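My convention is simple: the sequence line spells out the residues, with the fold written below as integer tokens. I include a record here:
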Amino acid sequence: MRAHQIMTPQVITVGADTTIVEAANMMLRHHVSGLPVVDAMGGLIGIISEGDFIRRAETATQHKRGRWLSFLTGADRVAAEFAHEHGRKVGEIMTPDPLTVTEGAPLDQVVQIMETKNVKRLPVMRGDRMVGILTRSDFLAAVANLAHAVPGPSADDDHIRSEVLAAIKQAPWRPCRLNVTVRDGIVGLSGVIKKESTRKAAIVAAENVVGVRKVQDHLSVAPAYPPPEEDFGGGDFVSLQEQPPTADDQPF
């Protein structure tokens, strides 16, 4: 299997001048953990993710170092951290020139890039144009391992997938992060829905596409408030206690 066969084709993007607050609200509203950043012509110039919001001045989680540690860290790094922790626009905190894959990239190659480069999402490109995005939620490592032995989808399956996407993606009730897989006419629907009526509508839309033999429902209902971890995973509660100052924090 290849990247274009499991990628999420509808990509939510932001511009470099988008405010941090707007970007955060978009991620919460669309239930995504990262956003590609594009220029005025739609060209990919960066990416912003949940990790960029961990150390922020608003939450008092920015790096705090004494003068001695700051000296050892280096002025360039301290300056870059300050800009990232206090930046007001996406372009000031994004990761520029992100890693990408082509739409024809084999899935095992995609997995290798994600693992070796420690990235959670990869924009999918067709030449200079972004046509989708792949995240860890789009597949598990086990699926990529099985891809060597399992025959890939046929040309008919690719056509059915395109028709199902076309039938759903323009609807006002379409699921967030909609993804469609097809094998031997069996359609798998995944994504995030807000109401059960959306699930029924998506299944009916897929069933009405010529060539569909069966629809497998993998849609999930969005929680009221998305938790901090990607893919709606759980987080651990920690106790935050004021730490006593160290010798490095003492003024000269």
The radius of gyration is 21 Å. The first strand starts at residue 14 and ends at 15. The longest helix spans residues 155-169.
